[in-house]
Design a protein that fits this description.
6-stranded parallel sheet
Length: 203
């Protein structure tokens, strides 16, 4: 999903997913343009052995925008796998990046990752990772990092001839330019184009 809502729109998608034996569910969500508010939190149940769910999101929140997004995955069967990965940037808006992994069997594996960049003092990123293991042997992990671009990264690129603005744009582009599994080349090109177009409004 590559969403391009109007600035005054409030978006409330609701969905639930059931993945059976050896099934694979991929969710790719990209929102780079202004929207008043977005709230979504799909729940996926992995009920068959070998089932897999992967959620990837790329989000940018300009001033006046509030994004409350995430996913929950319940690993109910043996040998199931789950991954929730988000890349977020605020240029003045509010982002709540949620993730909830629930392991009900001993041989499940799951990972939750949220990385956020704050490019304006008025912005907010709130990472809310939750891991819930119910059986010994479940392997579950999370990684969250929120902050600004490291000054030494900008200085490194400036020492190689880039202006401060060019260095910042390069870092932001690299941060957002995530190769998303299962995305056809045509859609990947659209994502790359949207990231390029959003550079000026971000910096």
């Amino acid at each position: 999903m590559i969403h391009d809502w109007a600035e005054d729109v409030m978006v409330r998608p609701r969905s639930g997913i059931v993945v059976e034996e050896d099934g694979l569910f991929l969710s790719n969500y990209v929102s780079l343009k202004p929207v008043r508010s977005l709230q979504m939190y799909p729940t996926t149940r992995l009920i068959g052995p070998g089932a897999v769910a992967r959620f990837h999101s790329i989000l940018v929140a300009p001033p006046g925008c509030e994004l409350d997004t995430g996913a929950r995955v319940v690993l109910e069967a043996s040998n199931t796998r789950a991954e929730i990965v988000s890349r977020t940037i605020t240029t003045g808006g509010v982002i709540k990046a949620r993730g909830h992994l629930i392991g009900l069997e001993p041989d499940v594996k799951a990972h939750l990752e949220c990385h956020g960049l704050i490019l304006a003092d008025a912005g907010l990123i709130h990472a809310i990772p939750e891991l819930e293991g119910h059986r010994a042997g479940a392997e579950m992990s999370h990684e969250a990092a929120v902050g600004k671009i490291a000054e030494e990264e900008i200085e490194y690129l400036m020492a190689r001839g880039l202006s401060e603005e060019e260095a910042t744009a390069t870092i932001v582009r690299g941060f957002l330019n995530v190769q998303i599994e299962g995305l056809p080349p045509e859609l990947q090109a659209e994502v790359d184009k949207a990231i390029e177009e959003s550079q000026e409004s971000m910096l």
